[in-house]
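Question: does this match?
>
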Amino acid sequence: MLVTTKEMFEKAMKEKYAIGAFNVNNMEIIQGIVDAAAECKSPVILQASAGAIKYARIGYLMKMIEAAVEEHPEIPMAIHLDHGPDFETAKMCIDNGFTSVMIDGSKYDFEENVRLTKQVVDYAHSKGVVVEAELGKLAGVEDDVNVDAKDAMYTDPAQAEEFVKRTGCDSLAIAIGTSHGAYKFKGEAKLRFDILKEVKERIPNTPIVLHGASTVIPELVDTCNKYGGSLPGAKGVPDEMLHEASISGVSKINVDTDLRLAMTAGIRKELVEDPSVFDPRKYLGPARELIKETVEHKMRDVFGSSNKI
């Protein structure tokens, strides 16, 4: 069933687990994610960035998600705009049936972020849609989001409290050391759980979101590289840290890079092992299966969302 994230997050906060929000771009990715959710009996958030919407087209995305909902009516699913760049994009998604939108005003100063977020909140709430906002800047690259490491900023817990009160946003993405893309850390991974703890103390009833939280699964990186890829030094957030975040107050964890790696690893392996293959089903099928396995691992072993429907 297609739902907002409101009920999902209330249960997640109460029972101390996180819900995976997985970026979608095409049919195989949607099928892999939803099949995993059905296998794990887990709620799931399907999210699309502005880049994904431009690539797949919003009508196609919504029809594929409708098909997923019809196939698995027992699974609570939300369709969410990831990193909405402006009011117009958020409005387009709301008007086309998204149940949740993110407005990312983190590139602006505090007051402009408040103004833009409040504008989206007012429109979304009038349509029964919930809103995620962001405070703090994550380094790295994902679609149209590109922040240099020197410009990254941790979230200020006091500002987070003020921001939620003034905007009325339903959930808040915070910066505690994660980053976008496949190259998150040069040295040892480190997350500021002290900031997370203070944020939760100040806004205990607001679901907290982690962006840039792919593990950059080593086995998938190795497979990509083995079959002709070039991803030297790719490194993400260890599963142990993400699990700790999920039981420490984070209600939504975003995953994009790991899905890209899974799909690319599956396709590369098939094409290299059998160069005669030219039927897309022969390489997209195994890629879909790798996505399913990746999502199942997240739900069962990292986020703790299995058997939570």
